[in-house]
Amino acid sequence: MTLPTFLSLPERSTKPRTVGLTHVLDKGMTPESAQSALATAARFIDVWKFGWGTAYIDTALPDKLAMLKDYGIHACLGGTLLEISWAQGKAQDCLDWAADVGFDTVEVSRGVAPMTLGDKHDLLRRAAAAFVVLSEVGNKDPEKVLTPEQWTAEVASDLTAGANWVITEGRESGTVGIYRADGSIREDVVAAAVLGGGIERVLFEAPRKDQQAWLIREFGCDVNLANIPADEVPALETLRLGLRADTCDLTRQWQPA
Amino acid sequence: MTLPTFLSLPERSTKPRTVGLTHVLDKGMTPESAQSALATAARFIDVWKFGWGTAYIDTALPDKLAMLKDYGIHACLGGTLLEISWAQGKAQDCLDWAADVGFDTVEVSRGVAPMTLGDKHDLLRRAAAAFVVLSEVGNKDPEKVLTPEQWTAEVASDLTAGANWVITEGRESGTVGIYRADGSIREDVVAAAVLGGGIERVLFEAPRKDQQAWLIREFGCDVNLANIPADEVPALETLRLGLRADTCDLTRQWQPA
Amino acid sequence: MTLPTFLSLPERSTKPRTVGLTHVLDKGMTPESAQSALATAARFIDVWKFGWGTAYIDTALPDKLAMLKDYGIHACLGGTLLEISWAQGKAQDCLDWAADVGFDTVEVSRGVAPMTLGDKHDLLRRAAAAFVVLSEVGNKDPEKVLTPEQWTAEVASDLTAGANWVITEGRESGTVGIYRADGSIREDVVAAAVLGGGIERVLFEAPRKDQQAWLIREFGCDVNLANIPADEVPALETLRLGLRADTCDLTRQWQPA
Lengths: 257, 257, 257
Hints:
The structure is a homotrimer.
Chain A: E1 22-26, H1 31-41, E2 47-50, H2 61-70, E3 74-77, H3 79-87, H4 91-101, E4 105-108, H5 117-128, E5 132-137, H6 148-160, E6 165-168, H7 187-197, E7 202-205, H8 209-219, E8 224-228, H9 233-240, H10 250-253
Parallel strand pairs in A: 1-2, 1-8, 2-3, 3-4, 4-5, 5-6, 6-7, 7-8
């Protein structure tokens, strides 16, 4: 089908993208649902994360990894699985298994395990030898809050240690890390993360529409957004393009008809 | 399969309906999911809205429109897309495209664009020449609240201008228009909308179960309800029929066993 | 596919289970979605409840019941449908129909109908003659709160009357019964239910992740959990196994690498 062209819309990057990434969070989709989502929306998806430890119990993993490869989408292992493996002294077993089964990308985080920044960077360097690496900054525990200065320093040092992009923690709920418990945005933390890595190297976890819209209004249609449910990718794309009320600035677009 | 008949249930309208409409909000479903939802629930669905600008980027649009035609369901273009088109001086291009691709219904709203009521009625009349028209009343911005008198007047004048039904704004979230920010119902606004159009011509956006249940208890099983996710249509139908705790009045139904 | 084995995880029961049950709430899934969910996650699912009265209007019911039988999963009729039938003097018609169409399990509750405990036990005994019975304790109306003593007594007497397991009310929303309106856990009620039936005979409705995680941390990976959406079963399994931040206690698991 030929898509319509009668509207003036923002310029949007196309695949393979280095900015404007959409990163999907898969909580355990069936292969049928994944196939259907990809057939519709693969051109909008750059990274597909198998959330936390879901990959470890997913008998359909090879099928899903094969689909992602066909569609030119990075298949990323969840950071929590690698943290748990590290805590059990099995980090290398985990990385070896991930490479064997077909992941090309891993997330390196210290959201739950008692890792020092040095431990994280050691793990990150090990991972970077074989994978595209997304590092994650921010704690999953709402009680453990990093200062803006800590955000800047950790984002910058993760990139120096070899991360390709840095993800800012938000979880599936959008209530920790760069967000307050009510989901509102900690603007100082967002600014601190951008200061540390530059807007093109930061991927914001943004599961909620109001969070996505705020980031798009603030940074433009090609902001990198993460933890998007696969079935909400088309809706996100309309937000990026100003085709939904939350991001269409009709005062500015207005031309006399 | 023969459905069971041992219960006494409220009389429910059947297709093609003029009251008791169920209006689905499609945020970008895959054609596979749409097909599956329709095979199960088409007899309960009267209008299928392609929310905001999702239709503009949907390569599966022709497939989905063909399915809806087969199932005797109105295919409705989202109001925000027409508003954006109008604001760019492209309203007629939008209507022409919608007709070409196979929509039979459009929504005419002024929820985001700076339209006067006169502008809206001009657009509505243009649309009514080629489409079934659902007009929408209410603002998407929670700060911009219409008085009940304004609700009554706009609903009535939209119908006079040619709308087939009037939709009351609630969004996907159910937190604006006829609802407060916490989702509770602005009963004065609901009454004002009904005063303006009559209960049979008003379609209430009601994405949340508590909102659906309230409207069904207030207006009966054949109240017109909008912005229902496709996969929640069977659950809504049980609410309409008094087959769920929220709407089954067992005090009244009680007969000695 | 061979699943990986490099991590130390808690011992988890396998099917056919008598503890560690996962009970799915089906709100009207299409047979295609059900088939896909079962192909992926049937080994994690023990009971599949057709919520409230959805079964009464579901033309795909025989297909879905056949699938569940193939996968060795109990097919359970929703308690509200039996309550409504009872209130209309049609309880036996309802049970006869359920047996004919292929249910092997029914839920017996008094969450909306004006039943005495004696009425409930009569109905429960009638149901137990032909079905596996899950009784439910707790009211769907947040205004009607049972005391902990009433919870203990009703759980215990339901088991004596013939229930195989007792479900504690939480609804699809997780905001009544064993939960407060904000979803937090009424720990005294949970303890009272366990006191009445023993942890192995109580099934906790726990639709929200924070509720599931709390129950798993409190009672271990083989706590019985109910009202899980089918597409969230794999995510729940990772919670049970300590493969998600909310339940992985890395302080305890830690071993020097």
